[in-house]
Request: fold
Amino acid sequence: MPLQPNQINIISDALTVKATAAVTKYRFIGYNGQVCAAAAPCVGISYFDAAIGDPITIYPAGNIVPVIAGGAFAAGAQLASDATGAAVAATLSDITHTVNAMAMQAATGAGDIVSVLVW
Reply:
């Protein structure tokens, strides 16, 4: 799904790290340069695709950027990573340890691209 017409994006800072695995844009990226594992903490969200060894542009905490949804969630939901680095509603155990973002827009299902505030 393309960016939504009412998409909100505020980008103030970016990091660049080396991809240690193939990365798809709009996914949570872990501290190891790979797409986050399920419920893992992230360094930010990828903005472009990258192959192994390529630089990845990552938008860290404080940025409002697009992310791909792994399922439906409401605007304002606390979000964690699923096994593919997509955003899913955080469970109670995630809220204590691994919430990576807050939804600025609702997602109706997997594959939606919505704006989130990265934490």
